[in-house]
Amino acid sequence: MYQCDSTRFANAQPPAAPVVVVHARKFAFVPSEITLKKGQTTKLVLISDDVRHGLAVKGLGIRVDIPAGHRTEISVTPAQTGDFPGACSVYCGSGHRDMEFLIHVVN
Fold first, then answer.
1. Tens digits of per-residue pLDDT, 66-90?
2. Can you tell me the distance from the alpha carbon of 66 to that of 22, in angstroms, rounded to the nearest whole number?
3. HEC profile for 35-87?
4. Which is the CATH superfamily of the domain at 17-106?
5. What's residue 5's pLDDT?
């Protein structure tokens, strides 16, 4: 008779959420576009390479500060598909207006 060690499965950890690293610098996000999956939690690691920045993506409820020289981590679980534009939400100099970001959410 086959026996299964159920403790191995009971102690199994769920797979870690995908991680996407985005750098903010005068005057761009790198990368400037990312793709996420609907319903899948993803950790965004936001790093400022120079001055204080922010990221706001209204359609996904994201608004976060990114302090100079630091990293900010947030978790995002998109509930709908589509393209969600965002931008730097903290004035960071003369090119601030050009700091755009786009999140594509797919099935």
1. 999 889 999 999 999 999 999 999 9
2. 11
3. EEECCCCEEEEEEECCCCEEEEEHHHCEEEEECECCEEEEEECCCCCEEEEEE
4. Cupredoxins -  blue copper proteins (2.60.40.420)
5. 52
